[in-house]
Design brief:
227 residues, mainly beta, seven-stranded mixed sheet, six-stranded mixed sheet, 2 helices
Length: 227
């Protein structure tokens, strides 16, 4: 019986799966573009999941690393930095990390840094690697809004503030199972396995990612006016 094992010639001619930075890779559909244009709200939005795989490029053009994971700090309710990996199909993790405060800019095609000198030991982000994906979102009056599917950040220069979540909606939102966008207050602490938001946040839930920046601004304005 013939063996199903590939020959050396077949293996050498095989192509690795397309990566996000492949020039031949199929681009994402328009509604999940890595960076949304400013919609008039002043916010430029990016999904945390779509920062993974972006090349890390110095201002002199060096680009031998890419983003592996986005690191969150649940206590502060913010994005603190990134772990990195070597690019390529067999690329392994990089031992050092990148703090968001050392980033020059986050764009649709790359994370820009001044130089490799900004890299830090992994301990620099110790205790801030909690993953919020899958956490349940509750209002402060006890309504279950769904579970976190992705984190939405507003980027400007080296700052990346968490402004909302992409949520797999519960029945309470009338679109159970659908993905919607929930704005967050300017500062929200995340503890345990549940995230508590003001009850009024459900009034600003958006099904449209493109205009989500305006929903965030309107929600935060409403919170400011009522405080």
């Amino acid at each position: 019986m013939a063996s199903s094992r590939a020959s050396d010639d077949e293996l050498s001619g095989a192509q690795a799966p397309a990566r996000a930075d492949d020039e031949n890779a199929v681009p994402p559909p328009p509604d999940v573009a890595p960076i949304e244009p400013d919609d008039g709200s002043g916010l430029r939005l990016v999904r945390a999941s779509q920062m993974t795989g972006l090349p890390v490029v110095t201002l002199t053009g060096d680009h031998d690393l890419e983003i592996k994971d986005v690191v969150f700090d649940k206590g502060a309710g913010g994005l603190t930095g990134f772990t990195m990996r070597k690019p390529g199909f067999l690329g392994g993790p990089h031992k050092q990390v990148l703090a968001v405060t050392d980033v020059h800019a986050i764009g649709p095609d790359a994370v820009m840094i001044p130089s490799h000198a900004v890299f830090q030991a992994a301990e620099a982000l110790a205790g801030s690697g909690d993953n919020v994906l899958g956490d349940r979102v509750l209002t402060d009056d006890g309504t279950d809004l769904g579970v976190v599917a992705d984190v939405i950040a507003s980027v400007q220069g080296g700052a990346a503030d968490i402004v909302g979540f992409e949520v797999e909606a519960s029945a309470a939102l009338g679109t159970q199972g659908a993905h919607v966008f929930l704005p967050l207050p300017a500062a929200v602490a995340i503890s345990g396995e549940a995230i508590v938001v003001p009850a009024s946040a459900r009034d600003f839930v958006s099904e449209d990612y493109t205009g989500f920046g305006a929903s965030v601004e309107a929600f935060r304005h409403q919170l400011g006016a009522s405080s």
